[in-house]
């Protein structure tokens, strides 16, 4: 049995070490698998290569990969520490096994001492039985009951020791039963824990695969996030460039609008000047015409003076008109040139406005497209951030579950080692206790045989004890206070028996002085009836006496093993007054004596007189 238990423990330890080695290999394989998908992705898709390069340039994914590698390395370290813990558990098991062996040896010594005490107790019981047997064959004397009481006390002590040993044997039997139950429970717990360990290992492998899949998914999402981030940055730069172009065009448009407004204001001023000068020319022409018409009508003036003045006025008017015409022609030329410039500017402004409107519409379209794309990218980025956050939460949960499962696995291993140790120790202790119980059962059988042999003796002793517990109580005399001489009278003695034994016999012997005469036997016999006894005697008075003494002695008849033992249980005395109604017999002797004395005195006197 011990060899099979050792083989079982060795097989379990080999299985546990194989499981730990398999888990370590799985962890190493997961590390290799985590490195290899990046290479495969680089060989398959150049875009993913560039995205992964961008991912490497960013600090966050690199730290994530580093933390994952550190976690795997920490897990391998935990596996090695678990193997070390298994070795420590084996050393602890050996230490506990040595302590249990010492406890078993101590129990063996205690059982050997109990066996010696049981043997000694048996011998002493035999000796006491022989002493009691020899005592029963001896004659009854005053020390006989005392020796019986002494032997009874010694026998009680031996019985107490026997009961203690029997109780201790019962406790050992119960302990064996408890150990057997614990053995069965340990076996059941060991089987259930092995099943739980297999399921836990399976769950651990499933969690490891899920962790690898999540790590791969997280890495792919990180690459996609880096690619989208770079694309978003490019679009942001394009948006900034277009916004700067739009701002510059808007400023140029504002400048051109201001210049066009100034040109239109100048054009309006020139038109106003031209209209004023035209009005002046028209007024001068009308004045000239009036003057020409007025010159033909002037006749009262002298001719010489009128011609000279008119010639001077006309020359002044002509020169003024010529100057004004030349100025008008110059201004008309300037106005036409200015009009041409204004038309050219308006044409250029309209062309630029059209180009600017087209560019602005294009920029607005690009801006709206970029804005829409930016919104979509923001939504995708939020979705990706939410997915990454969820993945991080799941990864943390899985890591926590992995840590919990690792701790639970370690706990199960410790419990399995403890139960295995307890199972081996319990098996050894059960075998040892079984042998001890067989020896104790043999001793118990011997003691039971001896006790069965002592049962009649015990019954006789118990009967004797019950008889010895009987005592007299409430003893009453029933006798006359005064009795006549030569008259018979009856004396009655009644008592109540405490702890009565039905049918037990009591003897009472009455002792009287010389003034009383026993008409019945001095010894009376009475049987216990309803817890009471009653004795009767018949007496008569011989001599007159005021206090005639009577002594009574009550003896209990004890039945022990077919033999009768008498035990005095009560002594008492009483008095009775004896009187006589026969005066002759009462005082006749005195009268005769007195008369005789007188006669003797008379005779002596006569004799003396005669001699005188």
Give your account of this protein's structure.
The chain crosses the membrane at residues 587-605. Keywords: Coiled coil, Membrane, Signal, Transmembrane, Transmembrane helix. Residues 21-88 are annotated as: Disordered. Residues 47-79 have a biased composition (Polar residues). This is Chromosome partition protein Smc. With 612 residues, the protein is an alpha+beta fold. It folds into four domains: 2-235 and 394-457, no CATH class; 236-387, Helix Hairpins; 471-581, Immunoglobulin-like (Sandwich); 583-612. The protein has helices at residues 2-44, 46-57, 59-137, 144-295, 303-468, 583-611, and strands at residues 471-478, 482-484, 488-498, 505-512, 516-518, 523-527, 532-541, 545-560, 563-579. The strands form two sheets. The chain has a five-stranded mixed beta sheet. Strands 1-3-7-5 form a four-stranded antiparallel beta sheet, with no helix packed on it. Helix 1 (2-44) packs antiparallel against helix 3 (59-137), helix 2 crosses helix 4 (144-295) and helix 4 packs antiparallel against helix 5. The protein starts with a helix and ends with a helix.
